[in-house]
Amino acid sequence: MRPGMIQTLEVIRKIDTGYVLxxxxxxxxxxxxxxxxxxxxxxxxxxxxxxxxxxATGKIPxxxxxxxxxADVVEKMPGLGVFVDIGTxxxxxxxxxxxxxxxxxxxxxxxxxxxxxxxxxxxxLLAIPAAESAFDHLWETAPGAILNKTISGRVYRTSKEGAAxxxxxxxxxxxxxxxxxxxxxxxxxxxxRVIDVKEDxxxxxxxxxIKKESRIEDADNILMHLEQNGGIMPFSDKSDPEDIRGTxxxxxxxxxxxxxxxxxxxKVEQRNGNTFLTK
Length: 279
What we know:
Blueprint: E1 6-15, E2 18-21, E3 25-28, E4 41-48, E5 54-57, E6 69-77, E7 81-85, E8 92-95, E9 112-119, E10 125-129, E11 150-158, E12 162-167, E13 172-176, E14 189-197, E15 203-206, H1 211-228, E16 232-233, H2 241-248, H3 252-264, E17 268-271, E18 274-277
Parallel strand pairs: 3-5, 13-15
Antiparallel strand pairs: 1-2, 1-4, 2-3, 4-5, 6-7, 6-9, 7-8, 9-10, 11-12, 11-14, 12-13, 14-15, 16-18, 17-18
Helix pairs in contact: 1-3
């Protein structure tokens, strides 16, 4: 009688609030659509109520302790985690312990997580995000023809190094941290460009626009930074790459391309390691 399992149990007796099933499990009237009789067997899903008791519902979820599935995120609770809809009456918590360290990349409402069910140390039912191995049976080999094509994917793992995604065609994708302006959320659906198809059938994806478009966008961001800082910044085409990335989240090569564009347009000039807005 473990919470998170789908079981077939016998109805022992009726009570005012519903039914008592074998194992002394309560099935409330609100959790079943039809009348039951003692001796009848019914398929139910077991979960834990607010009092910590194991109770039943006749509304069977599409995820259990033995299966994985994509669950919609319905609520984010800072300091606690996020709640997901698994297709039954009870929304299930994904603990903050199983989410990224920084809440800014936690899933938002309408994001999706690939989860199964489990329990915490106190025996409470939780939704557990899938480990990498849970996707092993899903992967398809990406064809070389998709190179430079636009593709969408769902983020299933985030890290400082980058984000791992699974695409609609079940291709395994990776977004390196240099190929994004901001870190995508866990569970977010992102759209990018295939920049490499690897020998193992996985792909590398960039969320950045192509160089020509990116140079315009980066130049606009540099101008905005200058305008917000009195028309001067301690950066030039000789600046340290890590300092550039820390401020503008772009590579030094991209920074130099954008800076070159602005200098050609005579919007900025460099002096003594600094860049100034021209008047």
